[in-house]
Design a protein that fits this description.
The protein is an alpha/beta fold and 300 residues long. It has 9 helices and 14 strands.
Amino acid sequence: MTEMKAAAFAEYGPPEVLKIHTLPAPEAGPGQVRVRVKAAGVQPYDAAVRAGWIPPGVTGGLPRIPGNEFAGVVDQSDTLPVGTEVLGFTQLGAYAEYVVVDTGQVTPKPPGLPWEVAGGLTAGVQTAEIALDNLGVGEGDTLLVHAAAGSVGTAAVQIARMRGARVIGTARPENHDYLRSLGAIPVEYGDGLLERVRRLGPVTAVLDGAGGEALKVSLDLVEDRSRILTLVEHGQAEALGVRVTRGERSAERLARYAALVAGGEMVFPVRRSYPLERAADAHREIEARHGRGKIVIVVA
């Protein structure tokens, strides 16, 4: 039996519970691919799993391996040639040397796409497009994006601009020039946010990646709460009448955005890369909820 190294947790808790484990490597079955992982993205979703949240449909006990986006090289498959470079998505298991998924959950990696970018791409672009589809954002809209400099925010700003929307993005002052480069009008977080946004004109839709006060401000800005979507305040969404993301990831969508990033038509910066052995540090940073771009774990 092949063994592999993985960053996993044997108990729920803070980032410190993530440790390197030696575990049996998964084997690909019919219609599946096994990927030798080179990079895996890090998300708040992963931190929630580590802290004790069990995603719908997840079974089995501990230890559990977080990570639901990755890039690497196919090393077992009955459908794709061994050696094919791919990026893809899963529910759990990407913080490891090997991951097994259905063939429909991967797409070939464009040659010009760096591994770190490929490993962290799927959550940002897929979450952003699904959210904007849920909100119906298009020509004539003014979209407010909270946490616009993060990975989902970065993607959402650019996708909304491609659709003809005007975009306002909240971020720290040091990220304002970055947001301008993406085509957004930057606004600083903190006291007075409501007034600062109102001075920029009516807002027709909100994508909330910050929660807390940002979501409260959004409720005052947009009367139609079906045009407010939160990525973080899931526990309050139903009571407030706002949306959460509804939709499935797809390899087709991932392939479209991988091609745009590889071709220089869209940017998707990596903020920091951590080795697998420092997965706990990656979680500490993602839980701080500030910073520009994507956090990635480099596996090999």
